[in-house]
Write a structure and sequence with these properties.
Length: about 575
């Protein structure tokens, strides 16, 4: 039996990819050094009486381990090359050539022991002070430093092992859905009176045909994705959802393999006007395949009966520094996770269908979002260059900031405006604007292990919520319907209100109206924190590690036992 090969346009140029890889990795390296040496390490060592003498050395010991975890040996010298100023050359040598943390520490001590005192920087004085506190014994000092490092519990596992552990936690979370404690919770909800009559209307509803994605992006909230058992043909579900909303979102990872279900929905859901679908762009191997997919979407829209409301596809394509990250593969070669050329194929093709398809690039916020550099540097610049090589020019039509100030991870002292939304056109297609909208990355899944400097956090918003202030923000409790019948919350897929195939849509909708926990989540009800603390002792740690209120309230409701306890307490 023969195999099918996929023709992908534009094989990666290793020289060009190296330029992108080095720029991004050096930025991460520099940001971590600056964060640690400007107070980050001092905060970790705040219980040490000589923290001011320890901070610089321990910062670079951290960086040594960071390099070992993030930069393959074959690229380490290239990454460090631009940081080899005369005063830092010895440090770069230690980072590059030390066999382990002990070798780094002993090499650092030895360097300053041999260095002349005259004209030496403050780091020599710091090291000598540390030596004096260890009876001028280099071995004793090295042992103390290594013990101190071990006590921080940093970089103790490879990413592969850590991701495996996170995946197991996610598996257990899904296994907990609709188990005994969830069933008991839903019985409490069912027993409540229902004051409302008739079917509700939703601004949007989600549809999950499958959970899966072949990519392993570092910022992804999902690692383990459950296989859906007892899936049914979607007609019954489409009929139910069609009566409840004019806008649906198909999601669940990358849905390239579920496009037929998407086309079927367009042709069967009369009342729906907006059919959004989230894809990662990996389908766009070349121009021909890209046009084929977009033509199929447009054809599905055009084939709707003449008397039906006009509909449109909202084609959402993930596009940011993480989906398009340049990484080192298992053979030591550089590659893009999802090549920019594939996104260019989509951007180039979508304007040909202005009446059927609205293209929107979904972008994750980072330091570049704090200025117009977003469009001249990083992944957007790579896209513009790729399109320019094809004879296209991008024109930015509009930009809009977030409704609140946020903190630049590279300069977090003061909140600042951040660019959230934009629109642009290819000048060849001036009447077909393309949207770009950005959002923060919450610390779920792999994202919980990202560098501090890589993501924009919502710590200020979290503090406002904890203070009981009105923020205008809500936890999204609209419903997502899985093809196996589950009904979960948009922003908390671990919170399931039942199975519409087994229990009926009316019962699930009644639960959504009556559920005190869903309502408390929606409004960031601070009582939930008190109820969590009643049965778990790690709330302070969860608050300290939270990237925003959404992530915090997600994390405290992940266990079935906690959901049941919170529901009981809300009903007291």
């Amino acid at each position: 039996m023969g195999t099918t090969s996929i023709a992908v346009e534009g094989p990666p140029d290793q020289g060009r990819l190296l330029t992108y890889y080095l720029a991004a990795t050096r930025q991460r390296f520099k940001a971590e050094v600056n964060r640690l040496t400007s107070g980050g390490m001092a905060k970790l060592l705040q219980d040490q009486p000589d923290v001011s003498d320890l901070s610089f050395l321990m910062s670079y010991l951290y960086i040594f381990h960071w390099l070992n975890h993030n930069v393959p040996v074959s690229y380490r010298a290239l990454v460090l090359k631009t940081f080899r100023s005369p005063s830092r050359r010895f440090l770069m040598d230690l980072l590059e050539f030390s066999a382990d943390g002990e070798a780094f520490v002993t090499g650092y001590i030895r360097h300053w022991q041999k260095a002349p005192a005259a004209g030496a920087p403050v780091q020599r004085d710091q090291l000598m002070a540390l030596l004096r506190s260890s009876d001028n014994d280099p071995a004793m000092l090295a042992a103390r430093l290594l013990t101190l490092w071990d006590s921080l519990h940093l970089f103790t596992r490879s990413y592969a092992v850590a991701y495996k552990d996170l995946a197991q936690q996610e598996r257990e979370r899904y296994d907990d859905m609709l188990a005994a404690e969830d069933r008991e919770r839903l019985e409490l909800v069912d027993a409540l009176p229902d004051q409302e009559q008739g079917k509700p209307r939703f601004e949007k509803l989600g549809l999950i045909p499958a959970m899966g994605c072949p990519q392993t992006c570092r910022h992804c909230m999902f690692i383990f994705r459950p296989l859906m058992k007892d899936k049914r043909e979607p007609d019954e579900l489409y009929n139910m959802v069609n009566e409840l909303t004019e806008s649906v979102l198909f999601t669940g990872g990358d849905l390239t393999r579920q496009l037929d279900s998407f086309y079927q929905a367009i042709g069967s859901m009369k009342n729906v006007r907006t059919f959004a679908i989230l894809l990662n762009g990996d389908f766009a191997n070349n121009r021909a395949e890209t046009r084929q997919v977009l033509e199929s979407m447009a054809r599905a829209v055009r084939r709707r009966p003449a008397g039906w409301p006009r509909a449109r596809v909202m084609l959402q394509i993930s596009f940011d520094e993480f989906h398009q990250e340049v990484i080192v593969d298992k053979h030591g070669k550089l590659k893009e996770r999802i090549p920019v050329s594939k996104i260019a194929n989509i951007v180039e093709a979508a304007p040909r269908y202005p009446h059927e398809i609205q293209l929107c690039l979904l972008h994750k916020q980072h330091a570049l979002n704090f200025s117009m550099d977003l469009f001249s540097k990083g992944v957007f610049a790579r896209l513009a260059n790729e399109l320019a090589e094809r004879g296209h020019q991008i024109q930015i039509l509009s930009t809009a900031p977030s409704g609140r100030l946020k903190r630049n991870p590279l300069n977090p002292d003061q909140p600042a405006p951040i660019l959230k939304d934009a629109s642009f056109v290819l000048t060849r297609f001036p009447h077909a604007p393309i949207m770009l909208t950005s959002s923060t990355i919450d610390a779920y899944g792999r994202a919980s292990m990202m560098d501090e400097s890589e993501t924009v956090k919502e710590k200020d918003l979290l503090q406002q919520v904890l203070n009981g202030e009105e923020t205008g923000e809500q936890f999204d409790t609209d419903l997502m319907f899985w093809f196996n019948g589950w009904a979960t919350l948009f922003s908390a897929v671990h919170m399931c209100l039942g199975n519409v195939f087994e229990e009926g849509m009316d019962r699930v909708l009644a639960r959504q109206r009556k559920d005190p926990l869903s309502h408390a989540m929606r409004h960031f009800d601070l009582r939930l924190l008190d109820y969590y603390r009643e049965i778990r002792d790690d709330l302070d740690e969860r608050i300290a590690g939270a990237t925003g209120p959404h992530q915090l309230f997600h994390s405290i409701t992940e266990e079935g036992a906690i959901r049941l306890h919170m529901t009981r307490r809300l009903l007291d």
